[in-house]
Amino acid sequence: HETQTTCWDHPKMTDLFQSLADLNNVRFSAYRTAIKIRRLQKALCLDLLDLNTTSEVFKQHKLSQNDQLIGVQDVISCLTTIYSGLEEKHKDMVNVPLCVDMCLNWLLNVYDSGRTGKIRVQSLKIGLMSLSKGLLEEKYRYLFKEVAGPTEMCDQRQLGLLLHDAIQIPRQLGEVAAFGGSNIEPSVRSCFQQNHNKPEITVKQFIDWMRLEPQSMVWLPVLHRVAAAETAKHQAKCNICKECPIVGFRYRSLKHFNYDVCQSCFFSGRTAKGHKLHYPMVEYCIPTTSGEDVRDFTKVLKNKFRSKKYFAKHPRLGYLPVQTVLEGDNLET
């Protein structure tokens, strides 16, 4: 009011986006994006919302016509139902008016940046489902079901719409370049090529393809790994900053015995003497089992006898998303 300027963002949303800038020192784009989305997910309390409830609320509000446009009032009424339900279960954590404002603000930033006051029903669903909590493959199932036709099959156009709506989430955070930009064409093509270019794919074929972590969607499985790692405690000490136990992701060297790195040292690229960034490492988002310990031990033994030339030729990055399927350039060089 004092400056008589219009601002599209809630002050709390502005604070949140400023705080995300701290994460720009994370070197790997899929992790940087996923950690930003995780912070956003928690700020919007969507980490408390399970997929089933999300789906039920859409039915309750009769949001079945995916290509229809829905106005701000209807979005607010849908979000109010969601957050009122969450408040009953998590009294101290959910402030309904604030959550509704923040979530509406986020949805409009992602799907209506020109502020026409309307977003597509499908965009609303994909945005909220992507950030709900649940098992990763369940989430893939729900997302597929939203775009599939009455035969529960999905053609190239429908898959394109799903990927287009999903990629807007990293795009809004300024993180779209690493995921093939806004062009989801190569991803659609790779999915259908994997299924012998049949005109339609089934949910199982979609999930099998998603397991390969395609470039445009890789931030979603990484988001789930980030969430799983948050509370993990590893009985190991970081060789760089000496944190013990390591909390979060643990990176274990497959070149040196007893060489572990915590996630903050790893993401910012710090190393200890004698350990090079290109040496093979393996990532754990939950504590290791004795079987994994033995397996890693034998790998270190083998690597002990390998030359520097071998590692230059065979960089084994066990912590990056799976090498993307036939699309774009390598995500990380």
UniProtKB/TrEMBL annotation:
It comes from the Eukaryota. One of its GO terms (biological process) is synaptic signaling. Its main location: membrane. PANTHER family: E3 UBIQUITIN-PROTEIN LIGASE KCMF1 (PTHR12268), UTROPHIN (PTHR12268:SF26). It comes from Nyctibius grandis. GO terms for cellular component: plasma membrane; synapse. The gene is Utrn_2. This is UTRO protein. The keyword Endoplasmic reticulum does not apply. Residues 233-289 form the ZZ-type domain. It is found in: Cell membrane.
